[in-house]
Design brief:
Blueprint: E1 14-15, H1 25-30, H2 41-58, E2 64-69, H3 72-83, E3 89-94, H4 97-108, E4 112-117, H5 126-133, E5 138-144, E6 146-147, E7 152-153, H6 157-165, E8 169-173, E9 192-194, E10 207-212, H7 214-221, H8 234-241, H9 253-269, H10 271-291, E11 307-311, H11 318-329, E12 331-332, E13 334-335, E14 344-348, H12 356-372, H13 381-390
């Protein structure tokens, strides 16, 4: 066993990868708040306020709107395992890594999974969903709103209409969009929606906001079989978050303090102001990258403001550039996943990390590294183009 351990002093980082994002100082201070019990009357007040703030961000009136104790992947599993029963037919849109993960989880729930395959980097069209549902009997259609692995933002309104015309539930992953893009759960007819705390909400990882509308919640409560996961069984968890306050598991008190403070920051900023900040910083970053000769990966007109995917230039070593950005500038960005490994960079502008300062700092740092690696580009072009967007 080791006898000497390192000091807990991680280097300050500018987190511009696919998550987590940097956390607001107010959220960090909230995490230093003394613990109370998870059934303490004062903590119950915090729980109720957190539910109200989550409804604000999800733009919903759904009663069953809570943070699941676990990361965004726990939100995915909770969403799927509570609505799927063994033998159910589930259609999953696969246009990136997280559509693949949905297929895996749904299969583990005993579903008959029907894949709707879409080229990575593009959105699914309503007609593709309609064609997949023509045979009927599909219980759930699941898809990713903001595909973190490709930088694609999926329009939902027409897809939602198709899904409901065929009598299915619409289940949506908003892990990389909630708090950075509009997520209109009620207006768009989303039946089940989940997210994660560590991206556009700018809270540490560890909680997964989730919301079920009345129809989906009623279907969950009237299941013929028990939910396969005891821990993620919302028929029990909702009794802790609801009027009964029935003990289920010990809630992560500190994480709930953090989430409430992060949501309060969003409420104080205002959703529309927050969305505009993300949109503007995305436009400035994109203008700067294109001025440097870098090509966006995601389909034009459907690019995320929160996660910008750009092709790695020919002749440039992906991992070396990312490591130099980290070592020399303390800037973290992400590389590609699966078939996109080594082919794209993923640059996050989420929540507290989405700022003019970070955009200009990153563009200057990337230019420095690329020029030293032999990539030919006009000095200062990226920063100048981004500055023009801001002016």
């Amino acid at each position: 066993m080791k006898t000497h351990f390192s000091d807990l002093k991680p280097s300050p980082r500018i987190l511009l990868g696919p998550g987590p994002s940097n956390v607001h100082p107010r959220v960090l201070r909230a995490m230093a708040t003394p613990l109370v019990g998870h059934l303490d009357p004062e903590f119950l007040v915090i729980m109720d306020e957190t539910k109200d703030l989550l409804r604000y961000v999800f733009q919903t009136e759904n009663e069953l709107t809570i943070p699941v104790s676990g990361t965004g992947s726990a939100g995915m599993e909770a969403s799927l395992c509570n609505i799927i029963e063994p033998g159910d037919k589930v259609a999953v849109v696969v246009k990136g890594v997280f559509g693949e993960r949905m297929c895996d989880v749904a299969g583990r729930c005993g579903a008959q999974v029907k894949r709707i395959e879409v080229e990575w980097g593009r959105v699914v069209e309503p007609d593709q969903v309609k064609a997949a549902l023509k045979d009927g009997d599909v219980r759930v259609v699941a898809l990713v709103h903001a595909e973190t692995s490709t930088g694609v933002l999926q329009p939902l309104e027409e897809v939602s209409q198709v899904v409901h015309e065929h009598g299915a539930f619409l289940l949506v992953d908003t892990v990389t969009s909630l708090g950075g893009h509009p997520v209109k759960v009620d207006e768009w007819g989303i039946d089940i929606c989940y997210s994660g705390s560590q991206k556009c909400l700018s809270c540490p990882p560890g909680l997964a906001p989730i919301t079920f509308n009345d129809k989906a919640a009623e279907a969950m409560r009237n299941r013929k079989s028990k939910v396969q996961s005891w821990y993620l069984d919302m028929t029990m968890v909702e009794k802790y978050w609801g009027q009964e306050r029935a003990y289920h598991h010990t809630a992560p008190i500190t994480m709930n303090y953090a989430l409430r403070e992060a949501l309060l920051l969003i409420y104080e900023e205002g959703l529309e102001t927050r969305f505009e900040r993300h949109r503007l910083n995305h436009q400035a970053l994109l203008a700067g990258l294109q001025a440097m000769g870098l090509e966006p990966f995601a389909q034009a007109g459907h690019r995320l403001w929160t996660l910008n995917a750009v092709r790695v230039p020919e002749g440039v070593e992906d991992a070396k550039v990312r490591r130099r950005l980290l070592d020399e500038f303390s800037i973290e960005i992400g590389g590609g996943l699966g078939p996109l490994k080594g082919r794209i960079w993923r640059i996050g502008l989420m929540g507290y990390s989405s700022s003019k300062r970070n955009v200009l700092l990153f563009l200057g740092a990337l230019e420095t590294v690329l020029r030293q690696e032999g990539y030919q580009l006009e000095a200062g072009a990226g920063v100048a183009a981004a500055t023009d967007v801001y002016s």
